[in-house]
Amino acid sequence: MKCQMCGKNPATTYVKIIVNGELTEYALCGECAQKAGYGNFLYPFALDFNSLLGSFFGNPVPEMTDTVRCPGCGSSFGEIAQSGKVGCAECYNTFRDRMMPSIQRIHGNTKHFGKRPSSRALRVKPEAKLSVAPQEDTELSRKRKELREAVESQDFERAAVLRDEIKALEGGGKA
Amino acid sequence: MKKWYEKSGQEADVVISTRVRLARNLSDYPFPVKMTAEQREKVEQAVRDAVMRGNSSISNQFRFISLDDISQNEAVSLVERHLVSPEFISAPNGRGLLLTQDETVSVMINEEDHLRIQVMCEGLDLEGAYEMVDRVDALLNESLHFAFDEDLGYLTQCPTNLGTGMRASLMLHLPALQESGAMRRVASSLSKLGLVIRGIYGEGSEPVGAIYQLSNQVTLGLSEQSAIANLKSIAGQLIAQERAARAELVKTVETQDQIFRSIGILKSARVLSSDEFMRLISYVRMGVATELLTGISYDTINSLIVQVQPATMMLTKKMTTAERDALRASTVSQRLNVT
Question: Terminal CA-to-CA distance of chain B, rounded, Å?
Fold first, then answer.
């Protein structure tokens, strides 16, 4: 299906909105979705997952080779990557290493900071957790840290500069 | 009891409303994408019990609406009143909504996550809305076990909500920034700061009525308070820019003409489409804000915008588009002519 806005690129983002009292679904390409304020994070996220899969299994990914399934809900990593939807809480343990780079890219962080449920809520925590996304002290991670600090101290001009630098570094690494 | 859209709050000339929502999932069930019909029912029951049987003063203010029991029209009206997402009503099976009488607090059950707890209020009040949603979250947490991970925070079906699971947004009226063509630039610089701005009544970069929604995007690694402070500070800059742009814009005779024409048409038209209404009320709102127009309050405008949305108009009676456009014109003219 082609994007309904530009009519050129294949549609990757589906946006549901109400137009004149009718529920309407628009199929947009990543670029147009971005322009309309919809794919800022989902778009690179979907790409990220695909490219990740590519680098893991070679492209295209045959469904057959994806033998690891989440014990909680039976999802494979391929299913999650394709739909962008995680099957259950346990998936985050099962596929943690493979999801971490995308999570880092979406949020710029990998460690929760903020509210916690009261003690009665179940904490999903693997018994013996494998090494999770080692925080290497690269230029990239330093810049990310600086960006966080800049945002927290509300120095947004500096933050914008840093964000651009990070983008350039990320882009450079991939090329 | 007045609903949020029947009132106006802080910075009402630019900020129409504030919304804060939390995504939560029960640890004992798979996320909605993997749930069976039976599990949906169980989750729905568990959440209903947690709200209705909680021994808190807010428990008895909620009523439950099952999406399976209401018409398409009633469902769309819920979206027009910003109580649920379009996504929520697109597949009603096993989905439900808990709603307070004043429509301030709503809990969507089995949307993208098991729970989406939402607080909506008029004007700019991020702290107030967060405090309220935090209380509802705590109430639910007394009897529900939420999926949580030490590193990833609250676990959500879509990884974009991991961490706090909190999305705070402001509905902003930005006619002058839109007119000046600054919105695209604003949108791209905001995305660099972990925020997103988009139109709410329609797709594309020029939403009808110049109403935009500004929200935080990053939920992991940033506390609720930091995310809110960040959003508030950026919103403050946007509000200042919009006011400055308005002050310049209304000096021009073209804009003044637009504003007075708009109020003239709204007061006397006999047929008014939804699009035309949104376009004109936007000028009127700017006219009120710049004091070119007097005697019209923001709450009149805010409530009119909700009241004359197509599906909301048809809550009491099914109508054709033509009948609706005629009723819209008379409703609008009555409300604006009383003053």
Answer: 23
Instruction: Kindly report whether the peptide bond that precedes residue A60 is cis, defined as omega within 30 degrees of 0.
Output: yes
What is the enclosing helix (H) or strand (E) of A125? none
Please pick, among B112, B122, B224, B276, the residue that the annotation labels catalytic. B112
Strand B96-100 and strand B62-66: pairing?
antiparallel
CA–CA min distance A129, chain B (Å): 11
Tell me if residue B167 is catalytic.
yes
Q: What is the pTM of this model?
A: 0.79
B-chain residue closest to A154, CA distance: B230
Give the list of residues 6+ apart from residue A80 with CB closer than 8 angstroms, or none.
A49, A86, A87, A91, A95, A99
Residue with tokens 């090494």: A131
CA distances from B184 to A78, B97, B169, B173, B274 (A): 35, 35, 19, 15, 25
Facing residue for B192 by CB, picked from A42, A123, A163: A163
Evaluate if residue A135 carries a pLDDT over 50.
no
pLDDT higher than threshold 90 for residue B316 = no
Alpha carbons B114 and A88: distance in angstroms, whole number: 11
Pairing label, strands B15-24, B195-199: unpaired
